[in-house]
Queue: 2 jobs
Job 1
Amino acid sequence: MASYSAHSTAGQSIAAKVANSPTARLDDAVVRKAHASPAVRRFARELGADLGLITGSGRKGRITREDVTAFIRDTMTNVAAVGSGGSVVGVTGGMGILPIPEVDFSKFGDIERVEMGRINKLSAGNLHRAWLNLPMVTHHEEADITEMEAFRKELKENASEGEPRVTGLTFQMKALARMLKAFPKFNSSLTPDGEALIIKKYVHIGIAVDTPAGLVVPVFRDVDRKGIFELAEEMADMSRRAREKKLKPAEMQGASMTISSLGGIGGSAFTPIVNAPEVAILGITRALMQPVWNGSEFTPRLMCPLDLTYDHRVIDGADAARFMAAYAREISDIRRLIL
């Protein structure tokens, strides 16, 4: 009796694992249309294998029992490789996603293999992990930065020799710092178990910097407590050391939120990926002069496209809309920024 009970328990455990497998919820229509015999279909269903993902090796592409076995073996191998801490970028543990197949490109013409740098490899892994774990949504907005840009140009014209160069990004940092204090949920991180938010009382902002070695994100601390000129001087120093690979690891950690600016290059919109465990990232592209209706006539205004990507587990659409509306008002009123 005890032997039967143990056997039954083991069978229930296996059945539970199959029921919870990534491919257990199969589309009956796909199974019926698959080019496979009834026995192979039954075998695949018992193992939780999706015939729609299997390429047949039999006659006229027929799926064989061996094809199903190979599919299960490859899937489990990929899951185990990532689960053991391997740096596999093309697969993800527990999600049943197959890797992109290896292709011999030399069959098509001359090729050259260029090894990815250390920074590129680290970035690839972090971005891939964020993409697979975070349900991300991007909210697009425009802000009128006409007055801000006029003030920035005035500062540049009146600057004394040796004074730091004030860029538009400096004002964007100040505006974001104010918003993070006004909307604490955006200055938070979700606990690994998803049960609570860690609200940060500090305001540290990361700035994505494009360098020859790859993208790095130096973190500017206590932005809410610093003035425009202090931030401009710090930004010049950080950017220089980032390009020279002289940033310390501690200087690239602890951001409340990150800004990714493509304004100096171009573009009208993009979808930046959240730098987890942060819950949002602000993207900025090139500002353009546009006709804006002021109630009686069209006037030329310098409009800056803004893109907020956020973790939908923490932030909903209404939160994002309110945050960006307030941000657009903040960056448009130069009096607020310089207070």
Job 2
Amino acid sequence: MPAFTLRDVQEQTYKPRDSWWTVWLVDPLASRLVKVTANRTAITPNQLTVAALVLGLAAAACFLLADWYWLLAGATLFHLSFVLDCMDGKIARLKGNGSVIGSWLDYVFDRVRVLICAVALMGGQFAQTENPVFLWFALGIVFTDMFRYLNSPQMAKVRTAMRRHMVRAIREAEESDAPESGRVRLLATRFDEDTAAQDEEQDEPRRTQENAQEEAGAAEPTPGVRARQIQSTALQAGFHQRFPWYERFRDVLRANRIRPHLFSGIEFQMGVFIVAPLVGAFSTVGMLATIIGSSALMFAFEFLIIYKLWLSTREFTRVKNDINTVLSQVTEEHRAA
């Protein structure tokens, strides 16, 4: 068995960008636990996923008891549950022993943990006070969490569809001798989902090759890499024009491995099931205010992402009508870099 070092764990398991909660409050502990787990045990990622759920259920039991010391214990257990939840993926990447069912378990167990902890946290407060407002808060927590995890894959589908369409248009443009190919324009207007399954199947091996080429810094980028360049430049033009400070702000965050989406589902869960119970140990009103604040911040960032996606779809309409001009701009930028 190879002896993994802490540097091995960091280099092979850290994501290029992650939530600030994970970067600052989880990874420093999780990476050290991963090092010990990988070197001294045969624990699998799926076992860690199950253990994370067990700790989450233990946190829910503490929340249900509702006394201040049980709230503190529940918050601690929930944080440890999230640490284990992060460890399963790190172990899988480090040792290469992940499984297809593992991602399903991770996703479903996360939702189960949030549902049970929300019912327990608010149910415990309702049992003590008999105030129905806690029941409404339980519904609100579950709805907010589900909105995030339903909205995210749908937005990803839109981005993937735009990128897939641009890949086809770029390939058509490269195969045409005319600088303004009518076939390109015809292809660019066929933005629909009728060939989605076939394209997904055909583009998967290409994406693997394109990622490898991008990492190697190839001189001639593939259509897939070019499409990604267009998505990150031309399709973001409208957003950057409205918010010129955003790129500098984003670059500062990226330099610290933090993603610009500062309040996602992770921060929402931590706010509700860690910060709120800690505040609730001293003030019930403060706990409810923390939950409201966490929900408001998550919705604000979700709507910001939706707004950014809407702007990119408007830019996409412009790009698809003049794909050759955009390709020329991207090529010049690539050469200059």
